[in-house]
Structure formats: C-alpha cells, structure tokens
Amino acid sequence: MKQRLYMVCAILVLFIGLNSCKQEWLEAKPNKALVVPTTITDYQALLDNTGGTGGLNINQPSMAMVGDGDYFVSDATFNALRTSAEKGAYTWAPTDSFYGGSVSGEWRNTYAQVLQANIVLDGISKLAIDPQNQTNFNNVRGSALFFRAFYFFNLSQQFCKVYDDVNSENDLGLPLRVSSNVNIQVNRASVRETYDQIINDVSQAIPLLPVNPLYPTRPSKPAAYGLLARIYLSQGKYKTAMLYADSCLQLQSSLMDYNQLNLTLASPILRFNAEVIFHSQLTGFLSANPPNLIVDPTLFASYSANDLRKNVFYLNSSGVNTLRTSYAGNSFLLFGGIATDEIYLIRAECYAREGNISSAMNDLNFLLRNRWRTGTYVNQTAASGDVALAIILNERRKELSFRNLRWTDLRRLNKEVRFQITLTRTVNGQTYTLPPNASRYVLPIDDQEILLGGLQQNPR
User: Fold this and answer.
1) How far apart are CA 427 and CA 73, in angstroms?
2) Using the 8-state DSSP alphabet, how is residue 216 labeled?
3) At residue 16, does pLDDT exceed 70?
4) Residue 26: pLDDT band by 50, 70, 90 thresholds?
C-alpha cells in the first residue's frame, strides 16, 4: 500500500511544480515513470496522503494565530524568529515590511492542497462508476469537496475581509481555483463569491459522506455539518449556524470527562480522542512552541481553581505558563480540526443570540460539568440572552484557545461595539496595537504572488 501511495503521489509533485508558474515547469515533459491515478483507490490514496506540504491533514494555515493575542513571547524569542512573516504576524506589520521579500508558505502550501483536491475531483469525474464502487466513489468525491472548502475557508479567514452582507459583493475574496489545470488564469473573486463556493462545496459533500469515517483524518457527515456551522458563525448568520451545529451533534456528540484524564502523562489528551470529529493539524510556528509561547496572563487567570482545563491545557515551564497539550496529542502539533466541544459552544452561542436562554445554558453547563473537578461545578444561569452570550463567549475563548479560531472570533465580534477588543504587544521597547476592525485583520499576499499571479493586494 505504501508503494502504491508513493507512486500515486508522484504525479501530485509534478502538478505542484507546475503551479509555481515558472516557464521551465510549464515546458517540462512528465516522466514516464510517474503513475497517473486511474482508479478510485488511487484517488483515495491521494486524499489519505499525510506527508509533505501537500498532506491534507497537516499544515493548516494558521499564521493569524500568531497575532490573535492568546500568547506572547520574550524579546529574545522574537529576535530569534526565523522569518519576517512570523515577526510581521506577531506585530501586525504593514504590508511593505511583512514578508521581507520572502514568499508566503501559508498561501502556497494551501493552494497545493486545493490543487490536490482538484486533481481528485477532475480525475474521478472521468471514471466509469458501477453499483459495486458507488460508495467508495461517493466518499472520494465528497472528501475532495470537503477538503477544498476547508482550505478555501481557512485562507479566507486570513487573506479576506470579514464577511459583511453589505460589502461582501465588492470586498476582495480568493482566487477560486476549482480546476487542476494550472494554466488557467484566475483572478480574485469577491468575498461573497468565495463564501458561496465554500458553502456549495460542503453542501455537495454532505450526501456523499459517511456518518462514521474509517479514520478521523477523513471527512464525514458530522464534519461537514460542523464545518458549515463554523462558516455560518463567521458570517454572523447565527440561526443557520445553530441548525448545522445541531445536525452535527445529532450524529456525534461525545464529550470527554476531564476527571478521567491521566494527569501524570506529559500529554493527558490523546490524539483522535472521543471529541474529534475531523482531525487536522495547524502549521507550526516557532513562537507557538513551548516554552517560547507564554500564555496571555488574562486568559490564564480566567480559569477557576477547580477548572481542570488549567492543568490539562497548560503547565509552568521555567517560570512561565505555556502549553502542555492540544487535541492533536501534544503541544507542538496544534489541533485545527473540528471537535464536539466547539460545536456545543457554537450551538450555545446561537441559542443565546436567538433568545433561547435555557437551551444555551444547558449546552454550556453540559460542557463545563465535563471540565471541572467532580462535585465542584455549579450550573450557571443567565437572566437574559445578553448575559448568557457574554458567559458563553468567555468560555469559548477558554475552551478553544490555540486552535486558530480566535482570529475569526475577533474579526466577527469586533463588529459589535460591546465585544470590541484592542490588542497590544510590546517588543524590544516598542508598543504595537491592533484596534477593532483594523485593515490589518487581513494579512497581505506576498509580493511574488502578486507579481506572478497578477493579483490585487489587500488594502491595509
């Protein structure tokens, strides 16, 4: 199986090379030794590939997390950061000094993953399907659609403005590459068109995907519902987000009881634990590695003494509070997938915004009873939807820290005056700030991509 996967993935390397837009790649002839995928099994192998930059469950774009305010680093660590882009993300740098002449690995790696999904979608459309392989065909097509949507959405949260019903028709979206033909020139769509493409892909995937995937790295119906809930939440379409969150939890709703975790282990939370609906790992950054990462003191202080998350998520190393683990199984591979705890919090928030206070607090209390020391948690109550919402958003930050979700939350919540936050950092004696709704909540595209791709730069 490994040999077959290697041969199948060789063709992907060729496609990714072509995508660099260099003339020598465009003129190069394929090596006859390369094996072109020809069967459903071949295309499934491409989707299951977890190696290299094109692996579909790794290197999820997460540079925005460097700047989301949940952690800071010492001056010595900042000065040692290897790339201008990481420093730029950390200080919310202006466009002209963000990349320092380097390319954006996040942009290029993610479009390589989109290309991989497109290769699968284009390839399987040419296969003859019979009743014996219909189920496997459906899984491959549904998975490729899910992955393309997943990565388009992740890119949109970093390189596009926050969704706005009034301006989304004119705001710059993504170049929507939906073909494996790398010679097609694709300009930037609008934000509305970008979201329409993402939602359409996931919606098409739902009837094709199984409820229970063979592996947590494969998409499923619950994962697709959960992704739609996340997408609609980012748009501020809370009623629709609530419906998809509920659909997800109807199929997968398990929560871990943190009282049952073995706190003597270096990483008490196991990879592929009971809450993981879909597994994906974030791109790693030096600043986000323990003990470089110093947890924001306000965030750390927000956990009560009997809240087990304080000891499960974090530890004190060399006098600083840093990460202990993640849902990816350790503190160096951060989880960016979809898990039931996030979906409960989405549904709870949407219930609160719809005025269903009882259901909102039921979801929240159910989650927190599984997070606090046995016998110490007292159910929280709220006298109004606004009070419930404030409590839930506070718990959302505590539960979902370091999953690359806060940047999206800041972008959408800053549109509401009551939740606006100004981020501040001091580096080498200089103070940097990111005010609410600042244009720097959109990351720049690197200069080479602008030049070679003919793309319009983000105004920031």
Assistant:
1) 9
2) T
3) no
4) very low
Task: Give CA–CA dist 116/405, Å, rounded.
Answer: 25
Can you read off the two tokens belonging to residue 447?
Answer: 């200069």
pLDDT classification of 49: cutoffs 50, 70, 90: confident
Query: What are the CA-CA distances from residue 206 to residues 145, 146, 348 (Å)?
Result: 9, 9, 23
Structural tokens at position 41: 């099994």
Decide: helix, strand or coil at residue 409. Answer: helix
What mean pLDDT value characterizes the chain?
A: 92
**Tokens describing residue 56:** 């579909």
3-state secondary structure of 376: coil
Summarised one tens digit per residue, pLDDT across range 278-298 is: 999 999 999 999 999 999 999
DSSP 384-420: SHHHHHHHHHHHHHHHSTTSS-HHHHHHHHTTSGGG-
254 close to 224: Cβ distance less than 8 angstroms: no
Nearest-angstrom CA–CA distance, 105 and 282: 13
* Beta strands per DSSP E along 79-217: 172-175, 188-190
Q: Are the C-beta atoms of 287 and 90 separated by less than 8 Å?
A: yes
Express as a percent the part of the chain with pLDDT over 70: 91
Q: What are the tokens at 216?
A: 């947590």
**What residues have CB less than 8 Å from 81, skipping those under 6 apart?**
87, 90, 286, 287
Q: What is the pLDDT of residue 52?
A: 59
Beta bridge partners of 316: 321
CA angle 434, 345, 232 (to 5 degrees): 70
- Cα distance between residue 183 and residue 166, in whole Å: 34
Secondary element (H or E) of residue 27: helix 23-27
Q: What residue ranges do the domains of the chain occupy? A: 2-258+337-417+436-446
CATH of 2-258+337-417+436-446, one of 1.25.40.390, 3.40.50.450, 3.30.450.30, 3.40.190.10: 1.25.40.390
Give tens-digit pLDDT for 185-202: 999 999 999 999 999 999
Count CB atoms within 10 A of the CB of residue 421: 13
Distance CA 256, CA 268 (A): 11
Q: Which residues pair with 278 in a beta bridge?
A: 338
Q: Which two tokens stand for residue 298?
A: 């306000």
Residue 11: pLDDT above 80? Answer: no
> pLDDT digits over 216-270, tens only?
999 999 999 999 999 999 999 999 999 999 999 999 999 999 999 999 999 999 9
